[in-house]
Amino acid sequence: MSRFASWIILTAVGAVLGVVFSANIWANPPVMKTLSAHVLQVAEDGSSLTADFRHPATGKVYRLIFYMDSESGLSGIKSLRNLRTGQVVSIDYVDGPAGKKIVRRIAKVKLSGPPPGLEKFNGL
């Protein structure tokens, strides 16, 4: 095979591989992220949730909007509309198109308090 023919073949193979890799045919799946946040508002149709997330390192509060889709799941709640302002939720999400945060799982966090009967305890 001549050098010219080899060059043409390598150029064609390189062009095909360039298109394949730039098209993200073998793209990595989105990274799942998890956080806990305070519910601010749930959309009337139950399609989204607005929540405040306090960054543990900086203390800065971020207002985030999470969107539901066909792959979103609820854990321990029947509907997103059952959530109330101020409740703490744990959210597993992925970053979707245009930077939207897409819920994969959401659960209400049960905040623990003193065990029953502790208010009557007077010490040892």
Brief descriptors of the model:
single chain, 124 residues, alpha/beta, OB fold (Dihydrolipoamide Acetyltransferase, E2P), 5-stranded mixed barrel, 6 strands, 16% helix, 35% strand, elongated
What would your notes on this structure say?
The structure is a single chain. With 124 residues, the protein is an alpha/beta fold. It has a domain at 33-108: OB fold (Dihydrolipoamide Acetyltransferase, E2P) (Beta Barrel). The protein is built from one helix and six strands. The protein has one helix spanning 3-22, and strands spanning 33-42, 48-54, 61-67, 73-75, 88-95, 101-108. The protein has a five-stranded mixed β-barrel with strand order 1-2-3-6-5. The longest helix is centred in the first third of the chain and has 20 residues, at 3-22. The protein is elongated, with a radius of gyration of 25 Å. It starts with a helix and ends in a 16-residue tail after the last strand. The mean pLDDT is 83.
In short:
This protein is of the alpha/beta class. Helix content is 16%, strand content 35%.
Number of helical elements = 1
Which runs of at least 5 residues are low in confidence (pLDDT < 50)? none
**Number of beta-strand segments:** 6
**Which superfamily, in CATH terms, is the homologous superfamily of the domain at 33-108?**
Copper binding periplasmic protein CusF
State the secondary-structure class: alpha/beta
Helix content: 10-25%
CATH architecture of the domain at 33-108: Beta Barrel
Compute the separation of the termini in Å. Answer: 94 Å
Shape: elongated
- How large, in whole angstroms, is the Cα Rg? 25 Å
Strand and helix order:
HEEEEEE
